[in-house]
Design a protein that fits this description.
Largest sheet: 10 strands, mixed
Distance between the termini: 17 Å
Bound molecules: S-adenosyl-L-homocysteine, iron/sulfur cluster
Order of helices and strands: EHHHEEEEEEHEHEHEHEHHEHEHEH
Structural class: alpha/beta
Radius of gyration: 21 Å
Strand order of the largest sheet: 3-4-5-6-9-10-11-12-13-14
Number of strands: 14
Strand content: 15-25%
Oligomer: single chain
Mean pLDDT: 88
Helix content: 25-40%
Length: 382
């Protein structure tokens, strides 16, 4: 487990928070901009490398602050260019970050929690249960680590990371403050300069937090729908029992309308064979989304052991897509990327794969998590 040093970790501070930090230590606010560039543009974690900061201030910073990302446990690069990092967070659990290149676009899929409490029936993260919230430093730290692997920002003409999606492990709206702080740094020019349209938060539907989000930030929103009626959604996405579809879609519409400028909601729909993939489901979905400005992303189910679900045939996927398309929807099917490094949606830490090499790695990661769980519960008992 990572030990706390008692120092302020500057990695997770927004520009405003860094300015306050400098004021509190009796320094000028403009230092925040200088430090942010060193941290996020140049990937520096050593105050001595900051050549435009005088020695006295560097020493002062060394005594009270640090720049510390999560520990990288492994980095894998797939034959299709997809990259995956397993990082260990302060609670001792491991989470994953995935980079998916596609033409001129490079999308980073970032985790917000270790595990997830919401227990969606087809999600391997949900099966793990909730372990811990990530700190803002651990969330932006995933972008920091990925960005460093491509070199510093000013050295590049095209940035490697053009889009960020909060679609890794965890429910981002249940770790609200830390996720919002990290997304502010993603969008800040002194951070990663990613446009608000290209930072997307995906939620399974924590309704009150959708309204709260609209008050503080204007990132793009994706809704994990997965079922066109409450009866089925209650089974697949249990939080639906608390916040049913009518309430949920109304909140999403409010969020989108506040953004203006022709912004739309992204609907994610994981296709599960014979469960939510029939023409009747497509028809219900068309009726449900009649007044919702949206684009639809179909995600063929990525199987994991003992899930009890199957991926539909390619024909069934195409049939579902065609029906939505004929009704006037913009529909894409998410292709599975990075399969050789287990980087697909829902294939994140915790599963045991059948190929030996993968099995060993996944069992190892799983053990890491359960050992730490055992260690921390032992610590809690003492
Ligand atoms: N908790 C958030 C974000 C993380 S999950 C949410 O649920 O939206 C990111 C996406 O992957 C969600 O749409 C989720 O439903 C989907 N997903 C989870 N497990 C999957 C699996 N095994 N196959 C395909 N998609 C999956
Ligand atoms: Fe949590 Fe999202 Fe998985 Fe549901 S799909 S269990 S909300 S991570």
């Amino acid at each position: 487990m990572t030990q706390s040093t008692g120092k302020t970790n500057l990695l997770g501070l927004t520009q405003e928070e860094l300015e306050q930090f400098f004021e509190q230590i009796g320094e000028k606010r403009f230092r925040a901009g200088q430090i942010m560039k060193w941290i996020h543009h140049f990937g520096v974690d050593d105050f001595d490398a900051m050549t435009n900061i005088g020695k006295a201030l560097r020493e002062k910073l060394k005594a009270s602050a640090e720049i510390r990302g999560p520990e990288v446990v492994s980095e894998d690069i797939s034959s299709d260019g997809t990259r995956k990092w397993v990082v260990r967070v302060a609670s001792g659990s491991c989470v994953e970050t995935v980079y998916i290149p596609q033409g001129s676009r490079g999308t980073l899929c970032v985790s917000s929690q270790a595990g997830c409490a919401l227990d969606c029936s087809f999600c391997s993260t949900g099966k793990q249960g909730f372990n811990s919230d990530l700190t803002a430093a651990e969330i932006i730290g995933q972008v920091w680590i990925a960005n460093k692997s491509f070199g510093t920002i000013p050295a590049k003409i095209d940035r490697a990371i053009t889009n960020v999606v909060m679609m890794g492990m965890g429910e981002p709206l249940l770790n609200f403050d830390n996720v919002v702080a990290a997304m502010k740094i993603m969008m800040d020019d002194l951070g990663y300069g990613i446009s608000k349209r290209k930072v997307t938060l995906s939620t399974s539907g924590v309704v009150p937090m959708i309204d709260k989000l609209a008050e503080v930030i204007d990132v793009s929103l994706a809704l994990s729908l997965h079922a066109p009626n409450d009866e089925l959604r209650n089974k697949l996405v249990p939080i639906n029992k608390k916040y049913p579809l009518e309430m949920l879609l109304a909140a999403c519409k409010r969020y989108i309308s506040r953004l203006g400028e022709k912004r739309v909601l992204t609907i994610e729909y994981t296709l599960l064979k014979d469960v939510n993939d029939t023409p009747q489901h497509a028809d219900e979905m068309i009726a449900l989304l009649k007044d919702v400005p949206c684009k639809i992303n179909l995600i063929p189910f990525n199987p994991f052991p003992h899930s009890g679900y199957e991926r539909p045939s390619n024909n069934a996927i195409r049939r579902f897509q065609d029906l939505l398309h004929k009704a006037g929807h913009n529909v894409t099917v998410r292709t599975t990327r990075g399969e050789d490094i287990d980087a697909a949606c829902g294939q994140l830490v915790g599963q045991v794969m059948d190929r030996t090499r993968r099995s060993e790695r996944y069992i190892a990661v799983r053990q890491l998590n359960s050992e730490t769980d055992a260690a921390s519960s032992a610590a809690n008992r003492t």
